[in-house]
Amino acid sequence: MKLLFKQEGFPQDIKKVIGIIDADLSWDRLRPSLEIATDEIVDIIGENNYSTINVETVPEGSQRFFELVKFAIAFKAYMHYAPTGDLAMTNKGRTMRRDEYEVGAFEWQISNHNESLERFFYKHMNLLFKFMVKNNLIINLEKYKHDALIVPTLAEFEAHYGLNESYFLYLNLLPGLREFEDLEMLSRIGEDLYNDRNALKDKKVLHNYLQKSAVYYSIEWGLRHLDIQMFPKSILRSTESSEGSKSKSALLPTDLALIFEKDCNRYLKKVENEMTSFRVTVPSEDFRLPDLDFDDDDNFVST
């Protein structure tokens, strides 16, 4: 696998690219993490796009793309490496690194720092995807195909719930959208309408309810399956404490998921009601009840 870094001058290069690290990281220390990170980023942006750039010569017009991808790989590699570098692996076993000027961070500090690194990485990935979309760099991967889904674009998704224009998060929610179509949508609207998306779009009210249901379902799915740091703060709401004080406590992802599940079910009920209205048969003018041969003297109908 080709890398976007060279062994020569690596410590200075990696510090310049990431910008926030002080350590002189050697090639031998970081190379395994670089290979893992490169494989992960290639899996996200596609081999066809990655193959257009290389460390030796950057094609004309690809400098910005090269910089964005190189930073993503470097930052992700550091995220992989950092936990392994917190302890020294010595002949006496694993020991905490410490001298008279620096001490190891507390566990809560490391945890908070890891979360901030993850949030920063996801924001950068969204920046990378925005650049790719703007410059028509197609992510030609089957798992990212979304043109035929009930919510086929980020713009249509955000018409129902905002993701802070995070194309990266939208792509990660695609499995949830597909699951919604398979488990909730098909059984409610039937195979004919499910397969004829043009006819479905013509039923504007139904289509709108289905999109809202799909959006809330996918967010609920994401809160249960994805890294919570991917989500914007608008989703990570706070709730007033039970004591009524001014302090606020963040809802757990599972609690938030229940809120979106409730909203999804509310719109699924509207979908069912809308489908019921389509299936009502209105009698024609020629319709009449059968003649049962009753008259006014029959005890069955007489009062």
Task: Report on the architecture of this protein.
The protein is mostly helical and 303 residues long. It has 12 helices and 4 strands, in the order H-H-H-H-E-E-H-H-H-H-H-H-H-E-E-H. The protein folds into 2 domains: 111 residues, no CATH class; 126 residues, no CATH class. Helix content is 56%, strand content 5%. The longest helix has 28 residues. About 4% of the residues have low confidence.
Short description:
This protein has 303 residues and is mainly alpha-helical.
Q: What's the layout of helices and strands?
A:
Elements: H1 10-18, H2 27-45, H3 47-50, H4 63-85, E1 87-90, E2 93-96, H5 107-134, H6 154-158, H7 167-172, H8 174-189, H9 191-195, H10 197-202, H11 204-225, E3 238-240, E4 248-250, H12 253-279
Antiparallel strand pairs: 1-2, 3-4
Helix content: 55-70%
Proportion of residues in extended strands: under 5%
Q: Outline, from the CA principal axes?
A: elongated
* String of helices and strands: HHHHEEHHHHHHHEEH
Uncertain stretches of 5 or more adjacent residues: 238-249
Mean model confidence by pLDDT: 84
Helical element count?
12
State the distance separating the first and last CA atoms.
Answer: 92 Å
Over all CA atoms, what is the radius of gyration? 28 Å
Main sheet properties:
2 strands, antiparallel
Pfam family, one: DUF6712
Keywords:
303 residues; mainly alpha; two-stranded antiparallel sheet; 56% helix; elongated
